[in-house]
Design goal:
There is one protein chain. It contains one helix and eight strands; from the N terminus they run E-E-E-E-E-E-H-E-E. It is elongated. A four-stranded antiparallel sheet has the order 1-8-3-4, with no helix packed on it. It has a two-stranded antiparallel ribbon with strand order 2-5. By secondary structure, it is mostly beta strands.
Length: 136
């Protein structure tokens, strides 16, 4: 077992409002080396329910739901290519262990394309303005 003691924190502090599709934000993540990540999200609206997801080619690979705060405790971002068979990450790792001696087909692989996105759920962050006083 290899243990890494290297730790790097990258804080993104943004002021975001949900759009019409209730998407709070969407960031592309470029991976230069394999690394485990821990992702936290806190919203200024403490009673807002949200879904925080890591996507790889638009398919969810990690995620959590929260109210005001949520955490994805750990996920390994991989720099290399992935198989395009549509398997889950666990299935791909299992197959890789079984096929250690085989040569992979480059046509069946494509690089990871990670996206981090947060979406407001349960209509918990309404953007409608309350009706104001009417003029006579």
């Amino acid at each position: 077992v290899e243990v890494s003691s290297t730790f790097h924190a990258h804080e993104i502090q943004e002021y975001c409002l949900p759009n019409r599709e209730n998407q709070l934000f969407r960031f592309a993540m470029k991976v230069t080396q394999d690394c485990p990540v821990s992702i936290q999200l806190s919203t200024s609206k403490r009673d807002a329910y949200f879904k925080l997801e890591v996507l790889d080619h638009e398919m969810p690979v990690a995620g959590t739901q929260g109210r005001g705060h949520g955490v994805i405790p750990v996920y390994s971002l991989l720099r290399g290519s992935r198989a395009t068979k549509g398997n889950t990450i666990a299935e791909e790792e299992e197959e890789a262990e079984e096929e250690d001696t085989s040569v992979s087909n480059v046509e069946d692989e494509k690089p990871h394309k990670y996206i981090l996105q947060a979406t407001i759920v349960r209509d918990s962050w309404p953007l409608r303005t309350p009706p104001g006083p009417t003029s006579p």
